[in-house]
Design a protein that fits this description.
The protein is an alpha/beta fold and 240 residues long. The chain contains 8 helices and 10 strands. It has a 5-stranded mixed beta sheet with strand order 3-2-1-9-10. It has a 5-stranded mixed beta sheet with strand order 4-5-6-8-7, with no helix packed on it.
Length: 240
C-alpha cells in the first residue's frame, strides 16, 4: 500500500510556522510525520510547539542539539556551550513548562523506520563513531555524504541541523534535508513529503507554506531573549 510521510526539521520554537505547516498537511493523506529535532530554542513559543507535537498521532521524533542544551539548562547540568547561546538556552529552560521535560528527554538521537520496504534513518545531523555531531558542512555533496553512511543499510537518510534544504542521490540511496521549518528569511516555512509506491518508487515533494512571520518576529522582539540580535540578524536575516 502506498505510504506518504511528512518530514519536518528545526522548528526552533516557532509555533506560527509549525501550525501553518500542520494545516497544510491536511491537504494530503499523510500516514506519518517525522520530526528531525531542534524542536525548541531560538524562537519563544516553546510550550505552544510542544503542546502541538504531543497531540500528534503517528509522530516519530528525535532530539536535536538545542533540545539537549535546553534539557541541560533545565536540569542545571554543565554544558560546553557558553556565552549568549548558553544564556539563551537557560532562558528557554526557565520558560519551559515542566510537564514537557520528560517528553524532550525521552527522544533518542536517531530512529529507524521501515516504509514500503525502505529503511529510513532519522538523524538530526551526521554522527561520528562516538555519537557526536560532526561539524556543519557548508557545502555538502554526494562525495561528502556517501562515505559517512557507507556501512549502513538505510535507503533514505533524513537530516536537518544546517538549516538548508538538500536532496542528493547516490547508488539508489537518498540523502534529504527538508530545510529549517522555523528559521526562515521569508514568510514561508519548508517541509517535505515522501511518497513510497507499492513497487518501491519514491517521490519527493518540497513544500513552502506561508505563515505570519511578522507576528513571530514581533513576539520574539517583545520577549527579548538573550542572543536576540544574533537570532534576528544572523539566523533570521531580519535587518533593522
Amino acid at each position: 500500500m502506498k505510504r506518504r510521510m511528512a518530514v519536518i526539521a528545526d522548528i526552533h520554537g516557532n509555533y506560527d510556522a509549525l501550525s501553518a505547516v500542520m494545516k497544510d498537511m491536511e491537504k494530503f493523506d499523510i500516514d506519518a510525520v517525522y520530526c528531525l529535532g531542534d524542536i525548541v530554542s531560538l524562537g519563544h513559543q516553546t510550550n505552544e510547539v510542544l503542546e502541538l507535537l504531543t497531540g500528534l498521532q503517528n509522530l516519530t521524533i528525535i532530539r536535536g542539539n538545542h533540545d539537549e542544551e535546553v534539557l541541560k539548562a533545565f536540569r542545571n547540568v554543565p554544558s560546553e556551550v557558553t556565552g549568549p547561546e548558553h544564556d539563551h538556552h537557560v532562558w528557554v529552560a526557565e520558560h519551559l513548562d515542566p510537564v514537557y521535560e520528560q517528553y524532550l528527554a525521552t527522544h533518542p538521537l536517531t530512529q529507524t523506520r521501515e516504509e514500503g520496504g525502505k529503511q529510513i534513518l532519522l538523524t538530526h545531523y551526521h554522527l561520528d563513531p562516538e555519537g557526536t555531531y560532526t561539524p556543519i558542512d557548508p557545502a555538502p555533496s554526494v562525495e561528502s555524504l556517501a562515505p559517512i553512511y557507507r556501512d549502513g543499510q538505510h535507503d533514505i537518510i533524513l537530516f536537518g541541523h544546517d538549516h538548508m534544504r538538500h536532496h542528493f542521490e547516490h547508488d539508489h540511496r537518498l540523502f534529504l534535508n527538508p530545510g529549517a521549518l522555523g528559521v526562515t528569511s521569508t514568510a514561508y516555512a519548508p517541509y517535505m513529503i515522501i511518497e513510497i509506491e507499492d513497487d518501491g518508487a519514491v517521490h519527493i515533494t518540497h513544500r513552502n507554506v506561508h505563515y505570519d512571520r511578522s507576528a513571530f518576529i514581533d513576539g520574539l522582539r517583545k520577549e527579548n531573549p538573550p542572543a536576540l540580535d544574533f537570532i534576528l540578524n544572523v539566523l533570521l536575516k531580519e535587518r533593522g
